[in-house]
Amino acid sequence: MLSDSTFSVSQIRTHFPILNQLVNEFPLIYLDNAATTQKPISVIEAVSRYYLNDNANVHRASHQLSNRATCAFEAAREKVKNFINAADSKEIIWTKGTTESINLLANVLAPQLTKGDEIIISALEHHANIVPWQMLAERIGIVLKVIPLTDNSTLDIDAYKLLLSDKTKLVAVAHISNALGVINPVKEIIKLAHQTGAQVLIDGAQAVAHQRVDVQELDCDYYVFSGHKLFGPTGIGVLYGKQHLLELLPPWQGGGEMIKSVSFEHTTYNDLPFKFEAGTPNIAGVIGLAAAVDFINSYDRQDFLKHEQCLLAFTERALAQMPEIKLFCAGVEKSGAVSFAVKGEHPTDIAMLLDAQGIAVRSGSHCAMPLMKALNCSGTVRVSFSIYNTIAEAQRFIEALKNVVQMLQE
Known about the structure:
The chain is α/β, with parallel strands linked by helices. It has 2 domains: 132 residues, Aspartate Aminotransferase, domain 1 (Alpha-Beta Complex); 254 residues, Type I PLP-dependent aspartate aminotransferase-like (Major domain) (Aspartate Aminotransferase, domain 2, 3-Layer(aba) Sandwich). The chain has 14 helices and 17 strands. The strands form 5 sheets. It has a 7-stranded mixed sheet, with helices on both faces. It has a 4-stranded antiparallel sheet with strand order 13-14-17-16, with helices on one face. The chain has a two-stranded antiparallel ribbon with strand order 1-2. Helix 2 runs antiparallel to helix 10 and helix 11 runs parallel beside helix 14. The two termini are 33 Å apart.
């Protein structure tokens, strides 16, 4: 018998008033959580409280508003440090999001790389974990290598082992594929890379909302993610890096906050984490992200995981029973999302017809064009779940999809 899990989904939904609306005269069913999650009231209120009561710059004044803002700002850093089990809050760098975190690393790692050095990425990567390394290759002549896929669209670890060499300086892979929901064996990938002396960056944008992340247990050198996929605001993200590695890297941007002293003859850079945080930060975003972490921590993460896996399993089984559907990575361990195509139909048409019934899904290449090429398709329809989605919504989605397919193929 289908269940919405041991925790109350209806109680969870009370925190997300945006879900209580009609779209095209239908109750909204929001299944685009891999793109961005909705925000609980507590996050919205935390951001509002900052602007209403504490709006001031951080670290730069002696008045009370600045003191309160600074305390909240640095308390948030400590919360995120605990959330991913970093060793020290100095290892938490605020950025605009996953994309900026990766670009920051690509730029500050450049001085350590020379022509002929190799960086390994995978065929499952988001453009944000492809293009910055391509730009670096054009600048200094590094070689970009790609872990291919197996027949079931998972990473070919045997091929990865062959790509590793003493020329490998960095391995940069996603924890979970944004397009397919496939969970990559990142712990094994990290261990193998370290055996050759390479550093490892994990793109955790799709992972942090769905499973516990322990960066010390993973032993990754860098881990990046965005707040807006974690029930937090847009425009805020995190770059985690091992302290001894971050200390060796130069700043990316120059300006206020990232300095200790400045003269026309010489500038002395600030200590971690401020060395990488030039200019006025997204203070409200940081405070909102801390509220999102508090919201998540107020529940049992295992309940979240079980509920989302129930939604995924039901949806994948139902899709597999439809002969018109091509299901990608069927039977492979996933988290958060499932991708499919309707044979003979464009994915955007499917998404638009579902939207006409109040169901929000994502269609297209999902910022993963090389992956779509490897899958030999122009794009997919992606259904992605979060903790506030219900079995009834999953059932309604399947019914609506069947109606769409029937209409298109009559």
